[in-house]
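Practice problem. Given the sequence and the SMILES for S-adenosylmethionine, write out the predicted structure.
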Amino acid sequence: MNVLKSIHFYFKFIYLFLIGRIIGKEEYKEEYNEVSKTYLRWTERMKKYTDEILRIELLEKENKVNVLDFACGTGYIAKCLLSNLDDPDLSLTAVDISDEMIEIAQSEINDSRCSFVLQDGMSFLENETAEKYDTIYCGFALPYFNRRKIVKQFTRILKRNGTVHLILNCRGTLEGISKIYFNLMKSDPSLIDKIMEIGFSLPKSEKSLNAWFAKYRFDTISLKTVNEWVMFDTPNELYDWLKQTGAIAGTGKIFSENKEIEDAVIDKIEESLVYDRQYRINHKFILAVLRKSPQS
Ligand SMILES: C[S@@+](CC[C@H](N)C(=O)[O-])C[C@H]1O[C@@H](n2cnc3c(N)ncnc32)[C@H](O)[C@@H]1O
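Answer key:
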């Protein structure tokens, strides 16, 4: 029986892949629209790490004035930059695909130095002028894009000596929850409607992320990996956190019967993510600041 289910699962997976039923930008847009009102739970928890990649002193010292906040979400990075930099020549462009995320950013940022663009990030990059930006920030969004295309576009639109500031999840993050979704997909393949490939876009390690950029002659300014546990008293609280922060954005589109699946996920959290009477999940991510070579 299990063998038959596994075969069914792999066939279904390949079939959905071949016909292109893959969770993509429209689905992420919908899911981020849904979490926009609760996304603050994410920024509140993650700001101490995001702050590490801001490196305001680099922008000041090197007079970097053309800045891009790529996939800006509710604008945490843009807001920090604008409130810490008083240079009137600063020009910050904040781009995102989700109208509801960007609306929140717009309502919180009232600064004529900032302009917002509601657009798919890749289309935005492809239409940008070469060597326009001094600095690009991308907070928790790089894996939503094709890795090769995004690194190439970042390189193209960045000036020589320009810097890229990244914080992003890496392989091995949310390990327990990925297993839960994988097992649920395997246990009833007929319920799978679309497949998710974001897991394949995550860098394996800081070394691999570094290599993606080293190929385009970037040097490393700083690089580090964090793996931390997020703990809750109940399985529902853990699930709500994952859902409301966008940490599992996209998963809401995998199955055709989503309500039943949500209950099943919570049951599995209760069974498998319990530790010392708490429910916990790991969150693993990389912080990187890289510089484009003056010769490239
Ligand atoms: C985890 S949030 C990060 C938001 C913000 N950078 C931060 O650090 O808080 C991911 C963001 O990526 C955006 N996003 C996902 N796919 C996108 C795409 N194709 N183009 C532009 N933005 C996209 C989502 O709408 C969401 O706002």
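Check your answer against the key. The first strand starts at residue 66 and ends at 70.
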